[in-house]
Design brief:
Layout lengths: L8 E4 L15 E4 L22 E6 L5 H8 L5 E8 L2 H13 L6 E4 L4 H6 L6 E4 L3 H13 L3 E5 L6 H14 L3 E4 L6 H11 L6 E9 L13 H8 L7 H10 L8 E8 L4 H10 L12 E7 L4 E7 L11 E4 L2 E4 L5 E4 L23 H11 L2 H13 L5 H15 L7 H8 L1 H10 L5 E2 L21
Parallel strand pairs: 3-4, 3-6, 4-5, 6-7, 7-8, 9-12
Antiparallel strand pairs: 1-2, 9-13, 10-11, 10-16, 11-12, 13-14, 14-15
Helix pairs in contact: 1-2, 4-5, 5-13, 8-13, 11-12
Length: 464
């Protein structure tokens, strides 16, 4: 494990011998919560002044960046000002996207390791959109905010506790938004289910599940300089948790009335990772840190639980799991979408065959369709068709970008703030810490530093 994971850690052992000699000690690993710098306030429910036009600069035009540029050509009230990538050919490719959309060429930055700083320093940009490799995300986001820009950072936005706290402190100090570009919270099933949960259809939500299970064997060669496989080779733990964490945390109102308090992680041994390297290079690696499968269990202040998994190395079919267990109902997306509800949760005028409802099985296809129509999320109802047309993982990428611009133009709190970023990214260092200490429980820091209960319930903001 990298030394940076430990630099802010304080290990506190509470021995629970229970009067039995030889029983293993039980302890919780605790992490420091640095004191908020003088003069800073939290960013909970923060809203920046309205922007008539959101002027954007894009950094990173390899795998994810070009799609973002394309999506922004369909969003009113935006102007693409500048494009940056280390490789000039990637910038040229993004310029062609603008030309095909009938838009003027953007300023270009490329050819050197720090060309992106010039983009951030421009005085005609409001938002810096960062889609580079993980190791550069936090550094770029911090610099963009220091130059007076809002930062939107691809997932994961931070890989260490040091990076997380630096992003929080910079956002609080500069009063600039720092949003993680987590697209999975905008998928259609997730948004509709969230709306159902917020209206009490499932009763009290007790447990949520999420994951990133995606065999990347055919994709490894497309990551420039092999950066993603190398990261898994060098780091243990759930290094890519946000796709599962985002929807799970929104359902539980994390830092909006509840907060994560403790997690425990474990992993399998590493088999397919080193085997792939030997197969493609002819030489077995001396080490491979990350196990083929990682599991994390999280408990919240209000007695709820979250289960998160990470697996990019086995042939297990793609899954983000996405499950909700409530006192009166259940939702599941993978491998089969379905809802199960107790009969008293709905009336006969809400869905056909009301009397045949049973929590022992999923609703019928007809019942499912009627439920989705009734509880379709307002954002899906507003832009769902356009999102499907523009695309981006079925449309959720477009909704993510559309909502970011909508909130900035209307002076509203963003759907995801810097504390969401912190909470969803913290599994990288904290799961590794737990695993390296024999799957010991780890205390999850309060990244809001006391503000987690100021807002009661997660809700999307809308203009009057």
């Amino acid at each position: 494990m990298k030394k940076t994971f430990y630099s802010a850690l304080v290990l506190a052992a509470a021995l629970l011998l229970g009067g039995c000699c030889g029983q293993p000690a039980s302890y919780t690993l605790r992490t420091d919560v640095p004191e908020r710098p003088a003069g800073q306030e939290d960013m909970v429910a923060f809203a920046a002044p309205k922007l008539d036009t959101v002027r954007v600069g894009f950094i990173g035009l390899g795998m994810r960046g070009p799609g973002a540029v394309e999506r922004f050509t369909h969003i009113p009230g935006t102007k693409i000002v500048a494009l940056c990538d280390l490789r000039p050919e990637c910038v040229a490719g993004a310029q062609r996207i603008l030309a095909n959309a009938g838009l003027p060429a953007a300023a270009e930055y490329s050819g050197s390791e720090d060309a992106w700083k010039g983009l951030c320093e421009r005085d005609d940009i409001d938002l810096v959109y960062i889609a580079t490799d993980w190791k550069h995300h936090a550094e770029m986001g911090i610099y963009a905010m220091e130059q007076g820009k809002h930062a939107a950072i691809e997932v994961p936005a931070a890989m260490t506790l040091e990076e997380i706290w630096s992003l929080i402190n910079t956002s609080e100090r500069t009063r600039k938004h720092c949003m993680q570009l987590e697209n999975c919270v905008y998928d259609f099933f997730e948004m509709n289910t969230l709306n159902m949960a917020q209206q009490g259809l499932f009763g009290e939500v007790l447990h949520t599940e999420g994951s990133y299970i995606h065999n990347l064997k055919e994709f490894w060669p497309y990551y420039w300089n092999n950066w993603r496989l190398d990261y898994n080779r060098e780091h243990r733990g759930d290094v890519y948790a946000t796709h599962g964490m985002g929807p799970a945390c929104q359902l539980l109102d994390i830092h909006r009335g509840d907060r994560m308090t403790t997690l425990v992680s474990m992993d399998t041994k590493a088999v397919n990772g080193p085997a792939y390297i030997e197969q493609t290079t002819g030489q077995a690696p001396e080490s491979f840190a990350n196990g083929d499968h990682t599991m994390t269990m999280i408990r919240t202040q209000n007695g709820k639980t979250i289960h998160i998994q990470h697996d990019v190395l086995t042939p297990r079919p793609y899954s983000r799991m996405y499950q909700l267990t409530g006192t009166k109902g259940f939702a599941n997306k993978y491998p089969v979408e379905g809802y199960a509800l107790e009969p008293e949760q709905v009336s006969s005028d809400e869905m056909p065959d009301h009397e045949n409802l049973s929590a022992h099985g999923f609703l019928s296809a007809e019942q499912h369709a009627a439920l989705v129509e009734k509880y379709m999320h307002p954002i899906i109802r507003e832009v769902g068709d356009l999102a499907r047309t523009v695309g981006g993982h079925g449309g959720m990428d477009f909704i993510m970008d559309y909502r970011l611009v909508y909130c900035l133009r209307n002076g509203l709190p963003l759907d995801m703030d810097v504390y969401d970023l912190a909470e969803w990214c913290c599994l990288a260092p904290l799961s590794a810490l737990s695993i390296e200490h024999g799957s010991a429980p780890v205390e999850v820091p309060d990244f809001t530093r006391g503000g987690w209960n100021k807002v009661k319930g997660f809700r999307h903001a809308f203009a009057e």
